[in-house]
Amino acid sequence: MTHFDLVVVGTGSGNSILDSRFADWRVAVVEKGVFGGTCLNVGCIPTKMFVHTAELAAAPAAGAKLGVDAELKGVRWSDVRDRIFGRIDPIAVGGREYRLAHADNANVTVFEGTARFTGKRELEVALRDGSTRSITADRVVLAAGGRPVVPAGLEDVPFHTSDTIMRLDELPARMVIVGTGFVAAEFAHVFSSFGVDVTVLGRSGAMLRQEDADISARFTELARQKWDLRLDTTLTGSAVVPGGIRVDLADGSSVETDVVLVAVGRQPNSDLLNLPAGGVDVTTTGHVVVDRTQRTSAEGVWALGDISSPFELKHVANHEARVVQHNLLNPDSPIEADHRFVPHAVFSSPQVAAVGLTERAAKAQGLRYVSATQDYAGIAYGWAMEDTSGFAKLLADPVSGQLLGAHIIGPQASTLIQPLIQAMSFGLDARSMARGQYWIHPAMPELIENALLNLPLD
Ligand SMILES: Cc1cc2nc3c(=O)[nH]c(=O)nc-3n(C[C@H](O)[C@H](O)[C@H](O)COP(=O)(O)OP(=O)(O)OC[C@H]3O[C@@H](n4cnc5c(N)ncnc54)[C@H](O)[C@@H]3O)c2cc1C
Ligand SMILES: NC(=O)c1ccc[n+]([C@@H]2O[C@H](COP(=O)([O-])OP(=O)(O)OC[C@H]3O[C@@H](n4cnc5c(N)ncnc54)[C@H](O)[C@@H]3O)[C@@H](O)[C@H]2O)c1
């Protein structure tokens, strides 16, 4: 049994905790998979590299209505894939090497295997070579993330998740995507832009239904023009058939495809950790229970990121890692995580970005609010793009002008949202934000300026 000052389980955001301030701590890092976790290897970073490439592939088709006749000659899938992972894989390898061998990490022991609790702050690691190691620690950080959920009905066919779909050997002609959330919206955009015939299956009647209803409705309407949307139905079964895979739906229809991508959400990896032995409580969804300082129910055990957060976003995992880092180093002056205004963006086509309350949530909370929208079509840069479907929607307190929620669907939504996140985080009211600064003309942020001015404040 080896004792450590600190054990970190998971090398996604957990890996960023360690720096020179821990140089005289005895630290163990446990990783069962690839160094760097989901975001680097199978999440945010490669997906956005594919999304950017998809936008280039889609551009010729979009040019025609502006009078530019261009043609997509082809997508060299294996070159795209190998360029992206040729950049990412060495980062994961380098991160592993750094922890294993660099002088900065003389105090760090890396265990490559799966950790599970055997007692309070006592862990057993099943190493990849088949052996086990028992370790104890004064402090444990759980940063073990989550994994894709696989629905029933796919027992008899091969299928992909976001973990594997980006490494396909070749681009298929047809793809069925099960799910209508972030992963479905982003990969439907990527693969359809590359020429794949995409079908999306959803249980509910809309895509991105967690978004504000106006955004979800607009996204669904646009998605229907590009992808075969089969909504309000569920997958009941599937079979391998000559030439592909048949997916059967509850409405009695079926779809034939070459590849199935499952995108129905993620579950925390808490079940791999034998948490009851460690005294660590979980919610009914399997998320580790944490207080505002990221402490779990077990003394000396902290958690961060997807294993404990319902947000399942990298910027949240990184923020929580900084909170845990501070609290490990400064136990007498702990800080709290700030989850007031957590933004997100869906990098599909169109992009969607949001922060704060949807109109549905504002109503449910009984808040007094006013709302306003501004179409891209009504701003000069929107004319330049000939955009006819994008808009921003703001919700604000009618008296104070404080923003309650902001929702954007359209080009560069993920960037345009940032000043609104800033305004909400620092309490800047809509009037001051609109008129207390210059807005560059005729740039896209005029969308935000006009949406702010459209708010019917008291
Ligand atoms: C396809 C996709 C796209 C995404 N895009 C975005 C995006 O654009 N923006 C955004 O903000 N977020 C995005 N996310 C979400 C983001 O990737 C996650 O929120 C983030 O990576 C979570 O970080 P984490 O450190 O909590 O967990 P992870 O990065 O998942 O790290 C957990 C690590 O723990 C290891 N582990 C698990 N159990 C054990 C165990 N018992 N013992 C040892 N090791 C263990 C795992 O192998 C893993 O390496 C995306 C996710 C996916 C799937
Ligand atoms: N741009 C980003 O920030 C980004 C991108 C990708 C993923 N992510 C993160 O990863 C998480 C997982 O993404 P996701 O798209 O898998 O989940 P999600 O929660 O966004 O969407 C899952 C969808 O699948 C539906 N669903 C659930 N069970 C189903 C079933 N049996 N059959 C059909 N549909 C079903 C749900 O109703 C939901 O609409 C997200 O919550 C997000 O936080 C973020």
UniProtKB/TrEMBL annotation:
Pfam families assigned to the protein according to its UniProt record, in alphabetical order? Pyr_redox_2, Pyr_redox_dim
| Listed PROSITE patterns | PYRIDINE_REDOX_1
Chain positions recorded as FAD binding sites? K48, D306
Q: Which cofactor does it need?
A: FAD
Q: Which residues form the active site?
A: H441 (proton acceptor)
**A single GO molecular function, which one?**
oxidoreductase activity, acting on a sulfur group of donors, NAD(P) as acceptor
Using the chain's own numbering, where are the disulfide bonds?
C39-C44
**Which UniProt keywords are present, listed alphabetically?**
Disulfide bond, FAD, Flavoprotein, NAD, NADP, Nucleotide-binding, Oxidoreductase, Redox-active center
Where the record annotates domain FAD/NAD(P)-binding, the positions are 4-320
Q: How is the cofactor bound?
A: Binds 1 FAD per subunit.
Checking InterPro entries in the record gives: FAD/NAD-bd_sf (IPR036188), FAD/NAD-binding_dom (IPR023753), FAD/NAD-linked_Rdtase_dimer_sf (IPR016156), Mycothione_reductase (IPR017817), Pyr_nuc-diS_OxRdtase (IPR001100), Pyr_nucl-diS_OxRdtase_dimer (IPR004099), Pyr_OxRdtase_I_AS (IPR012999)
Q: What PANTHER family does the database record attribute to this sequence?
A: GLUTATHIONE REDUCTASE (NADPH) (PTHR43014:SF5), MERCURIC REDUCTASE (PTHR43014)
| Family matches, as NCBIfam families | mycothione_red, PRK07846.1
Which family does the record claim for this protein?
Belongs to the class-I pyridine nucleotide-disulfide oxidoreductase family.
Q: What is this protein called?
A: Mycothione reductase
Supply the source organism for this entry: Actinophytocola xanthii
Q: What is the lineage of its organism?
A: Bacteria, Bacillati, Actinomycetota, Actinomycetes, Pseudonocardiales
